[in-house]
Amino acid sequence: MNAPATPDIRVLLVDDQELFRAGVQVIINAQAGMTVVGAAGDGLEGVRLVDELEPDVVLMDIRMPEMDGVEATRQIFHPDRVARRGRPVRVVVLTTFNLDDRAARAIRHGASGFLLKDTTPLMLGDAIRTVHGGNAVLAPRDLSTLLETQFRESAPVPGPYRALTEKEREVFDAVARGLSNTEIASLVFASESTVKTHVGAILRKLALRDRVQIVVFAHQHGLVKF
């Protein structure tokens, strides 16, 4: 018996340039395992379509009329909306500037990283698959550089972090440094499945959505250890 086919990754485009949206839609639809389910010309419409279409990944322009990508991302990840949503959604910010401060703010609000608008079709497809898997789409040190501008003073470490086990803190530190499950498994002398279990427990205990939010949490509370 053949294994059931894996559903395509559902992608929503949010950008105020119609020609850019059309070009990106062609690129994504030409890739195996993903399809564009909708497009919006501003952040306000983008938030509405996320609620309506429940995409897996949103490609979000950072500078738009009506509502920019930062505010749209904040609204997409508002707890009330997240609670009503039937499936998780990931946001990738699109920008023309490397290490954009607005991109950093969008990541704080829940985005999984950013891409420059002149990225290649191959890199765009890889980025969509990466964030769909719960990972960031920029190098950990680049992410750290962005977040350092957002958290100049560390917030107090909350109680749930102190409740992590010693092994969970080891895994937390490794995730915050951008290590993969394979690298973490070697570091803490455990299997990859055990590492995944620890990551799941960390996300649950700290009420975080994904590994990117672990990195944000670590910077916010001064817990990054390179």
From TrEMBL:
The lineage of its organism: Bacteria, Bacillati, Actinomycetota, Actinomycetes, Kineosporiales. Pfam families: GerE, Response_reg. This is DNA-binding NarL/FixJ family response regulator. Residues 10-132 form the Response regulatory domain. The modification 4-aspartylphosphate is found at D61. Transmembrane segments: none annotated. InterPro entries: CheY-like_superfamily (IPR011006), NreC/VraR/RcsB-like_REC (IPR058245), Sig_transdc_resp-reg_C-effctor (IPR016032), Sig_transdc_resp-reg_receiver (IPR001789), Tscrpt_reg_LuxR_C (IPR000792), WalR-like (IPR039420). GO terms for molecular function: DNA binding. Gene3D superfamilies: 3.40.50.2300. It comes from Kineosporia succinea.
